[in-house]
Structure formats: C-alpha cells, structure tokens
C-alpha cells in the first residue's frame, strides 16, 4: 500500500480562503487531465482521464488502461448503473464497463458492438424503466434495454440538427431528446416534436436526473423542473454557454457550474441567481460529492482537487487578513470578548467580530527572533505575554480595548544572553510566576517598576514549564525531568521515582479528578495521579505525533496540540475516546499546531502558518460518523495469490496467510481503525490500524474472517466476512487418522497378546513349579509322618514298656529322659509337618491350628488362655515360612508368659484390617523390667529375628506389675507365591 503525500493550496472566494487537497500524477493519477469523477456504491472514487481510469480508496490509486481491457484510454464520462456496472464512455465511441473486478469490452462481450455508432460518447442516463441511454457526439443515441439489446436513434432525422443532444426524463417517466434546434418526445414507439422555450447550446453542460435538469442556453442557465423551464441569467464576460464545461448537483441539491475559469456554486436568492466562486483560475471539468461530504473537482492539466467536508466551516487568518506575522505560538481568549494571538517577532494581534482589529510588534527589543510563547490572564483582567525577550502586560481599559502595554525586564543580577520565557501563570498569591532559562521567577512590584526575582533561590536549573495545582503545589519541569515544590519550599524530584518522567516536559495542566497531563517533546502525554503515571497517551492511542506541545482541557474534552495536527478527545468514564483530528486534510492551515482554545462550538487553532477557526458542532451533520465502506482486497499465502471470486482453499504446505483490506476514507485514511477476528464459538476481536493481518500455521479446517472499521470519530461498520479453508496434509485427514488408529490398535493388541501370552506361560510354568514344590512338600510331610514319626513313636513305646517292667533304677531315669525327648521331638516334628503341608497355607487353617494349640496348651498347663479371633477370615494365602515363624513367635510368647510372668491368664487376639494381620499376646503377670526390654535372652532375640525374616513388625510393651503385651503386625501379600 502506498501512502499519499499530497499538497494543499488556498483558493480565495469572496474574501474567504479555502483549503483544498490536491492529487496529481506524482500521487498515482494516470494524467493531470481528468474528465469525470464518480463514487461507486462500494465507496471507491473513480477518475476518468485522457490516459485511462483510476480507482481510489483513500490510500492507493489503482490503474486501468487498454492493457486491462478498456476500449480506449481517453475516458470522457463515468457512470454506475442500477446493476452496479461502471460504464466508461470513451472518445473512440466503443463501450466497456467494469463489473466485479473485471473489465468487459467488445472482445470478451461481443454484444457491446451493437452499441457503437462511430462517434465519441459524451453523456449517459438510466431511466426508471432500466433503459440506459448512451449519447454520442453529433446526434447519435444508443439505447440499451434491460435485456442488453441496443436500439440506435439517429436524432438528426427528428431534430433537424447536427449538434449534440441530451436525454431528459420528466416525473411521468416520459422521455425527451433535446438539441440546440429542437426537442422530441417518445410517445409509444414514435418520436414526436415537442416545444421547449429554451434549447441547450453546450454539449457538455447538462445535468440530468428524473424531473430535474440544468443546461446552458444562449441567455443563461436553464433549470428544467418536470416540464417547466426557468432561465437564470448568471452569465458575465467570462462565464457563458461557451465556457461552461459541465453542470453537476450534490446529494443535498447544491448545483455547481464548472467552467474554463473555475468552479462556481449556483445560488438562488429570491428571483435572482448568482455564481459563488469555489475554485478559480482553473479549467474545471467535473465535480462530485462523496459519502463523507467531500467535494472532488476534476481539472484539465492540474489534476484533482478535494474540498474536505466541513472545510467551508473554516476561517483562516493569515497575512491576507491582516496578521503581521503568521507563525502563531500562543492564544488567550477573553470570555465573550476578543482573542489575543502571540506570534513571532514579538507580534501581538487581536481578533474581534471575526476580523483582525490590531496586529503589531509590541516588544521593543529589536530582535527578529522573538516568539510570544505563552499568555495568561490574571484576576484583574490583565493579559501577560511571555516571549524570548521578556514579559509584557496588556492593560485593560473601558470600554474593553486592550491597547496599553507595559514591558517588564529582569534585574541585572540574573540577566544573561538568553531571556526566553517559556511559561507564564498567575500564582495562588495573585502574583505572576514565569519559567525561563535560569529557573522559576516571581514578580515583585517596587513602586512603579515590576522586577522578577528567583523564589526560592534553589530553583535555578533550566526550566521549561510550571503549574500550580489545586493544593497550591508548584509543579515544574526542568532539564532533569518533573519536580514539585512542597509547602516547605523543598524540591521533590518526581523523576527519580519514575524513569518515564525524565522526559522533556513542555506543558503541564490538570484535568478531571485533578489528574495532571504532562505534554512531552517526543514521548506523547503522561497522565499523572499524584506521583503515579496512570496513563500514557501516544501514537498507538491515535495521537498524530508523540511531540505534543500543549494540552488544553475543557470539561471532558481534551485538545492535544502536536506537530502533526490537533487531536480532540473526550474523557468517558476514565476512558479517552477520539472525537476529531484536525489537520491539513480536514481544512487546517498547517499540521504544525502550537496552541488551541475551545469556546462553545468554536475552535481556535494556532499554527505555524496562521490562525484557523472552525465550528465543531453543527446540527444535522452525520457525514463524519458514517462508517466507512469495508472491503477485503487480497488473500495471499507465501507462494500464491488467490482470486476472491471463488472459494479459497489454502494448500497444506503453504499455511502462512496474509489478508489485505481497506476501509475507504478520504479525509484521514491513515486513522481508520479496524477490528478483525476469526469466527469461533468465543470470537475474540483484535484492534489495529494496519491494512493487513497475517495468520501463521493455521491448523486445517474452515474459517470465517470477520472485519469491521470506523472513522476517527464515527461508528463501527457492519461486519464484512470472508470464508476460506485450510487443506490438511494426508496425515491430518480423518480417514488417515482412522486408519492409523486401526493400525496402532492392531499393533497394540498384537503386542498385548504377545506379552499376555508370555506372562501366562511364565505363570503356568511357576504354577507347575509350585505344584511340584507342593507335591514335594506333601511327600516330605507324609514321609516324615509315616516313617520318622512312626519310628520315634515306636522308640517311645518301647521305652515305656521297659520302664513299666522294671524297678526304679538309675537307668530308669535315663529311659524317662528318652521318653520326654521323644515326645518333644514328635511335637516339633508335628509342627514342621504342619508348616510343610500346603493344605494348611490358607489363613483360616492357620487360625484354626493356632486355636487348637492354645486350647491344648491351656489344658496341659491348667492356665486360662483366651483366644479371640473372627469366625470368618478371607481365604488369603500364608506361605509355610510365614506360618511357621508367626506360630513360633506366638508359641514363644505364650511359653514365656507361663514360665516367667507369674500370670493367671493369657489373651491371644487376632484381627484383620484390610491387608494387615494384627496379633496381640498379652498376660496379666508381673511384666518385665525396663532394662530387660531391649532383648535379654535368646527367646526375645529369636522372636525379633523371626519377625524380621517375614517382614513383620514386632512390638513389646511391658510395665512392671501390669503385664506384658506383644504385638505382631504382618502385611498379607495377595497373589504372590512364596516358597
């Protein structure tokens, strides 16, 4: 996109200076000779030139020539019909038109050939029946019906003239052809003569719409209303039927007469009419009004001129109006009175009653460079002026004519070569305070002389501006940054708290909520709450430049004076919203703005080229708030540009997308704002001022791009949408994903099956090994019981027989010992056999065996043993090692209690808590001494060793005289076979 850098010029008309915007070949026009201008219903402005056609969107001139399909490069007239076709009326008489991005001509649309009569095309009209009338030079007329068929009318057969004709339609839809020598009316299929009082004398001077026409006759301009003709005698020695090039009307009915000497507005004043100069000393060929209210003028040899909407509301004061110097730096307005203007060279001017009443050099310094940089009005009505060479007071008189001046100088002890005073204000004590090169000074009156002294003496750094807030604090900005002077005359260096406030601050003022607004030289504007920066206003927020010279606040309206124009914003619920941007495009004298004052609906703006005044609030004006037309221009990827006339499918290998679009505007096209989004269930709008957006690596799918736009102070447009899709790679398609899911599922199932098979085989092998081991354990237990047990039983029985058959002898004692050992051995062997037998590996069997042991022991020892266990235990598996060790720990605990505790009862308690088997053996004996608990005796050591071997927790609790409790906690491990 190219950004237009166009020029501006002034044209005077009846003592009023108008500012026009000029577009030339350097800006993109095909030629400096422009015959016709129209705006189509999409918002584009078209220019027909002698070198082709331009289409303009506010930023870019698109070019169309015979290379693009035009029938001829010299296009005399442009017209858009009801079917949205834009017709190009060419010098060679051949027809072509533009429709939906394509130009149609006799080669790609042969039916257009039947509309050619051999002469140049000069006028076109579409009647209310849909017929389009093409008027050729020298009385040829081609009529195209809605079905695209042509009828050629040779008007010379009816009008007795070889002069050009124009077509007219009255309010009853009757059609007329008028020439210089007569008129005819279409009645049915027949043309009949029809009398008119005035006949056209100029082939280029007609403006026609149903029921109304203007044309040039011999004696003046004729206004045709229905069938009544009214002559307006407005000709003079320069303007007559031979110098008129065209007559055009705006949407509001304003009529403009274009001539070889300029453009004039036709104004009716009672029974008379006048031509008001608008654009003079130029050959103006056409004029049109766009949707924004701007006026466009086509000229011969000098390009196109745009008269911005609201430009007629401007009044400019320059040297032509009496200013002695046009470089204006400061303004001061007396409420209901005059406006005072401070300019360069020490020139002070007064404007009252909309004219310059006074303008002169008032500083007696003799310096050419002496800017009046600031002004203020004190409580007595004096106006104080600060300049590069001192301070001046304007003294009021009654009646209030300010013409007496008093100049103030600085005392010798603080003077230097630079006198420049940057800021002057009235202080809270009623005196005057200034900021200058040597710091801040206060005025003291001594007799009839006013002298400035530094107060306090510490404020001697180079100072740019100062401000007294509502708390009477003195804020000032020097070469270091922002400071303030507290009530104790102590300088507080605010810039040391925030690096942002090191900026060169050029102006300080306060706004709503007593916030300070700090204008800077290059960093925009900072909004300060106490000492905290709460807002930074810069170009991203619409500020035309970050160099802001001054900020003026009027209620909730804020004016920012920059070197790129004046921005008007409103403060709405702590949010700044742009209202207007004033610059050379909208009618301002210069973008170099130094000061501004708003009073009622009038805005005064001081610029480097003079003073501008404009009205800011005119009832019924809705042009500025009208949303701009929005169009999507291009859709590109890294490798390809797509046509927008067909569905866009982005290939999978090129997913970096760039979409270009435009919101059409002609006053400030660079400040049109956009919001865009990709439509989703939760659409998020993005804000930008760029004319393109990029999306990278979009995933495959269908997308809807949404776009809307607004002018700087207007409403958002409706949503423009564009649908496109991103094609997937083959591996991103649904069928491929399903195939991959099936393949992966098959592979996973295969591996699961393989793993499961191997696991089952290992388990089967383990089970077979376990079965073999259990069988071997059963065989060992059986052999021990049948063989060894039988033999030991026989030994015991033989010993008993021998003992019973003999008298008591020493040998008998040995035999008794053999019997006891044999019985003990049988008991131990029985325990071992019980542990080895796999039939007893279940928990309920273990508990049953333990219960029987307790009962038998209790009977044998004649000592109560209370065995407490649930009736139903899960059939969990306990290995032989676990069963044996648990049993021996319990047996040892019971034996110790019977032998050593002196108890009268023992309790054995079992319980299962989830997978934890808890066993408690307690007695009511004398307990064990504390020093015996660590493990005195082999019995306790063996118990702990056995518990550790099976991973059980063994805990011994004993208190003297209160018995002993042994707690065993074992975690039952399910589904694990222990050998």
Structural overview:
It is a single chain. With 979 residues, this protein is α+β, with helices and mostly antiparallel strands. Helices cover 16% and strands 41% of the residues. The chain has six helices and 71 strands. The chain has a five-stranded antiparallel sheet, with no helix packed on it. Strand 21 (221-225) and strand 22 form a beta hairpin. The longest helix has 72 residues, at 734-805. The model is unreliable at 1-16, 411-417 and 975-979 (pLDDT under 50).
Summarize the structure.
This protein is an alpha+beta fold.
Strand order of the largest sheet: 1-2-29-28-27
Q: What share of the residues does DSSP label as strand, in percent?
A: 35-45%
Number of strands: 71
Overall mean pLDDT: 83
Shape: elongated
The helicity comes to 10-25%
Radius of gyration from the alpha-carbon trace, in angstroms: 54 Å
Give a quick account of the main beta sheet: strands, pairing sense, barrel closure.
Answer: 5 strands, antiparallel
Please give the count of helices: 6
**Low-confidence segments:** 1-16, 411-417, 975-979
> Would you tell me the structural class of the helices and strands?
alpha+beta
